[in-house]
Amino acid sequence: MPPAPPVREPFALPGEPYRPRRTEWLGVTEHAGWRLKLIAITAVGALPDDAGIKAALGAAEREVPQPARAGARPGVGFLIVHRGAEALWVLVCWWEGDILYERLWRADPGTTELRPVPPEGPTACVWELQAIDHERRAWIRYVLEHPGAPDLAGYLRSGPAGGEPAP
Fold first, then answer.
1. Torsion angle of alpha carbons 91, 92, 95, 99, nearest 10°?
2. Structure confidence by residue, pLDDT tens digits, 55-82
3. Cα separation values, 41 from 15, 48, 53, 141, Å
4. Confidence at residue 95, expressed as pLDDT on a 0 to 100 scale
5. Is the pLDDT of residue 138 over 90?
6. Which pLDDT tens digit goes with each residue over 111-133?
7. Contact assessment for residue 114 and residue 107, using Cβ atoms and an 8 Å cutoff
8. CA distance linking residue 139 with residue 156, whole number of Å
């Protein structure tokens, strides 16, 4: 089969070239049997504040299934809180075996009034996908490569880009 011809049709892209965004691992929170890694991202300025983190934890509490541990679900996941240019985005993610479940929430800029994003909405942006890729690799390394003795503690200690929890 011959290679596809290059696409030369213009399409709308953001006006700014891609730049990495500040991403920090904030540690692990435990609630209702769940252990969730907290990851914060910001487009500009400060990371999401305490109110944004609190709202994200509230969204996670509404989304993660109960009981936390059941079948292939070990009660482990991660929470991405992203202060983006056009919204506060929250990704609530949890593992069941080799499957990642994700729910997306958003709040208008300057607010923490999170609303679930409908299924036909977006999934994640390129900066969130970088954090998700780290979590995928860590899940494989610490859990899936060791089915007889998964290292959940090792997974939970693994922050994006090998980072340490923020003080």
1. -50
2. 999 999 999 999 999 999 999 999 999 9
3. 20, 7, 11, 24
4. 98
5. yes
6. 999 999 999 999 999 999 999 99
7. yes
8. 9
pLDDT at 164 over 90: no
Q: What is Dmax (Cα atoms) for the chain? A: 55
Whole-angstrom distance, CA of residue 148 vs CA of residue 167: 34
Q: How many CB atoms lie under 10 A from the CB of residue 62?
A: 11
Q: CA-based angle 154:33:60, to the nearest 5?
A: 90
The tokens of 42 are what? 């910001």
Specify which residues 102 forms β-bridges with. Answer: 93
Model pLDDT, residue 161: 58
Do residues 49 and 166 make contact, with C-beta atoms less than 8 angstroms apart?
Answer: no
CB 80 within 8 A of CB 41: yes
The residue whose two tokens read 């909405």 is 121
Give the integer Cα–Cα distance in Å for 21 and 132: 14
The pLDDT of residue 15: 76
pTM: 0.89
Q: Would strands 34-42 and 76-83 be described as parallel, antiparallel, or unpaired?
A: parallel
Give the DSSP H or E segment for 125. none
User: Distance between CA atoms of 42 and 24, rounded to whole angstroms?
Assistant: 9
